[in-house]
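Structure (tokenized):
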């Protein structure tokens, strides 16, 4: 009977050892997969942030346009994807608006000059 109990104890110890070894392997595998997932997430995050950088440039450019600073430099976006196309369209729109504003300012200035030269007194409300 003691031999039977000892045999069962050895079998239980071996099964316990095998289960511990399997658990260690699974734990190691989970740890490796977790590290790889974090690294992949960091890489994807880096590329997403780089792809959104042109969007930030276009937003800053739009904010400058809202403050009527149409004479500033280009947005600087040189991407060849959809965001780059959007930035290029935005830049073209900005240039057209800047040209229209310049024409309007020149016309307004020349009207004022001609009005003053001819002796007329006009206020901004009357003339423009």
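Design, position by position:
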């Amino acid at each position: 009977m003691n031999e039977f109990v000892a045999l069962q104890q050895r079998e239980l110890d071996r099964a316990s050892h095998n289960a511990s070894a399997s658990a260690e392997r699974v734990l190691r595998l989970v740890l490796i997969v977790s590290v790889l997932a974090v690294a992949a997430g960091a890489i994807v995050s880096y590329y997403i942030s780089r792809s959104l950088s042109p969007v930030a440039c276009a937003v800053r450019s739009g904010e400058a346009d809202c403050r009527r600073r149409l004479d500033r430099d280009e947005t600087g976006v040189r991407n060849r994807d959809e965001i780059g196309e959007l930035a290029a369209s935005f830049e073209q729109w900005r240039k057209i608006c800047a040209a229209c504003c310049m024409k309007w300012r020149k016309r307004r200035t020349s009207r004022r000059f001609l009005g003053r030269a001819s002796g007329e007194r006009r206020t901004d409300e009357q003339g423009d």
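Reviewer-requested clarification: Helices lie at 2-66, 82-117, 124-127. The two ends are 114 Å apart (CA to CA).
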